[in-house]
């Protein structure tokens, strides 16, 4: 039948087409066809013309009586035919669509399906076409791109005339408005994080659709006939059009290769295609970058340019009273050399800039102050005169102050920093910034190239405490509001990743070095430079500590606080860390990570506020001690062992124990081995007291057991310092009165040590053994003039421990009584300090419950107070 | 075959990864999870404002091992995690019916 006949007849033509396509594609892949898109459209045109000529059905349709023509629509109409692009055809009839049309379509189009081409077609009369275009903006834009292939040529002008008269002339503004709005939606959708790592080169920001929209708007408003008219009609400058064409050329190259690699129409640059594509392009590799990173950087840069051109173009073309929202805007600038026209800032003339190059930065300051955008003309002039910014300008204090005002200005509608970046001003002003422009990090973690990320970090900070705050609570807002060094923080945010411009690692340190030079050259105050470089050097400290260290361990917070030493710096570092994470991407910021970070921050803050543990002085003291101790090491291995031990000792212990004692304790610790405890008795210098140092495996109740053993052996405790190391070793130092029996002292000590071992191995029941002794002690009565006992349970001063202070009068067995009471109430002593002055005792215990938590419920606190009060003298 | 699921404190992740690698377990799945349990969320106060967090950030590690290796792996993980304090974590062991490697179609312990 007709179909099989057709198949035989057109097989030849379609095969020819297939062969031509293959040849074209391989020529393209060998980089030998810069006009691939046009040629690809051309061979299709040839096919359609040929098959139209040879058509059997065609002549039967009476083209003279019912004229018709075949048009190319959409991308095919624009001659932008990529390897796997659709082929969109329109069969247009002057009067009505005859029945035979179906057969014509079969005849011409079916053979194309056989060779794997995706061909779509519409059959319409002119009237139908116009009415559809009036209703559906997508039909309108595809018809705007229509291109005559074969048939009655005057149908083209008829169609276009009607479209213009009946649709465009009546409501061009409305149409353009709709286009702009749907593009806004598109930009928002494709600006989403998912698309930043795998850009969509057609629909994404700076993708081909942006360019198409420019063409459509130009066609509607100015009736341009070809892309070059954008330049000829003065809508784009010569340079702009040139660079735009080059950018588009690159993007199409990428798109074709993407089609080829994917084997189908594909506009999204998925991960698995990125490396392959990069390799086929074979770009010249930049220093230290992978091939794929160089590729992505270039693609990003080109798309960014297209996007900027698009935004500028649309901004200009839609900027009339009718289209703009009816919001009245009375911006005025008093700066000589600048003017505000239709809400946009511009220079009054190029000469004004030459007369006063300061305008180049003043315009940004005004833009920030008035929240008015720069006109396209202003941006063009900026690019042209940017060379006027030389070292004198950069290092001038005027420019610096102006820049800082811009940096500090809240960013609401107008993104001034972004404008500074896209016009090239930022790089000209801070040349070191150039290395991170478009710098892409090829992993799933970093969504933005480094330059954009840096600007985002600055913005995120400025949004703290505003309705656009991305953290979801008020902490950062409050912290930022009270910060006196906002300027310094924002400088650090702007430059924190500048070290990433260099291929080697260690970008924090390298960044700090680079920034130190930058700031010095510009005459920054020394203290300011130090703060900014400190922030940059340590901008990863908090996040690393929060994810890699035990946040439940006081030592973590102390060490971290000790590196920062200053509350204001800690707050700045925290704000920088939070905004850095938010601006990296969603894998870097979510409520999981935010909780960890905030925990660490508040703990470190509380340590710094209480002072003493993490001040600069404290840190120095500990460092000196460590150095002193290391001097005693005889070999490299011994040194390493000591370093390891330092990590295990708690910061409190290191701060409050002398170097000499630490060395002794280390020996004691080494002798512990697998036993539960080991102790050492030494005479103190005045030989009236003894120091008993005990090193034992910590467990709840240990402290009370030791105290109990001393009481059992009638040894009076004067002072105590108790510490717990991070590896669960208790280090307790007791200053005691020696046993009354001076002759057999050694034996007495041996017996006491034995007692302790028996108690710890549960062989000896301490409570039983002490019964008699304790009942005798309980008859102690305080003197009438003595002050009352005092018990303070403090849950505020430390984030890690409940601190219990007991002020009372000494009596034998006191320490055991108190610590036993603590143990029986489920408390574990971590740190303790006991001092006796004549007969007054101050006992401080840092405790946690057996689960390692503070005890802060009101009931628990009351129970503890009661339990301790019961065992104190004067209570019986 | 068994699936071993361990809920651990975030900073212990590297230790667990190291010990697993040492005993020859190389594949694992890691997720950031929120823990609600006996270990209380922190109540932090800054300038009188309370920041109450009701969960504890934890990490979940999931691995599938042959049945006869299960005990060894569990012991190794426990050794690395145990500090005797709350929040050390929990380990769950589940039986696994089938494991398939999609690329090659391998099944059972060859697919682990």
Broad CATH class of chain B: Alpha Beta
Strand order of the largest sheet of chain B: 2-5-1-6
Query: How many whole angstroms does the radius of gyration of chain A measure?
Result: 40 Å
End-to-end separation of chain B in angstroms reads 9 Å
Per DSSP E runs of 2 or more residues, the count of β-strands of chain A stands at 14
User: In total, how many beta strands of chain B?
Assistant: 6
- Overall 3D form of chain B: elongated
**Helix coverage percent of chain A:** 55-70%
Q: Strands of the biggest beta sheet of chain A: in what spatial order?
A: 7-8-10-9-13-14-12-11
CATH architecture of chain B: 2-Layer Sandwich
The main pleated sheet of chain B reads as:
4 strands, antiparallel
Unreliable runs of chain A = 321-328
Can you write the helix and strand succession of chain B as a string? EHEEEEHE
The gyration radius over C-alpha positions of chain B equals 17 Å
Secondary structure class of chain B reads alpha+beta
Average pLDDT reading of chain A: 87
Major beta sheet of chain A, specifics? 8 strands, antiparallel
Which class do the helix and strand fractions of chain A yield?
alpha+beta
Overall tally of structural domains of chain B? 1
Mean pLDDT of chain B: 87
Quickly count the helices of chain A. Answer: 39
